[in-house]
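A quick aside before the break. I want you to see a complete sequence-to-structure record at least once, exactly as it would be stored in a machine-readable document. Don't worry about memorizing anything.
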Amino acid sequence: MALKEKIGIVVSDKMENTRIVAVNARVLHKRYKKVVTVTKRYAVHDAESVASIGDQVSIRETRPISKTKNWILTSILRKSST
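That is the input. The structure line, written in tokens, reads:
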């Protein structure tokens, strides 16, 4: 099975070694056939605590690290300007 990779924006960095990353996806609504933006939030393991709010990051699926963490931070694509 191939590992899933996603790109998202860090929206929370208040926990130790964990970041919350929001990933946006554009999907077609089943009934109305309109393109809708769906946002999903993932708890991501960041061992070095390098990512901060507003950074665009790449995440990868991994083994379960805790009850909610199944993703790890692979790289920071763009740092936040603030």
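Two observations worth writing down. The chain has a mean pLDDT of 95. The CA atoms of residues 29 and 77 lie 30 Å apart. We'll return to this after the break.
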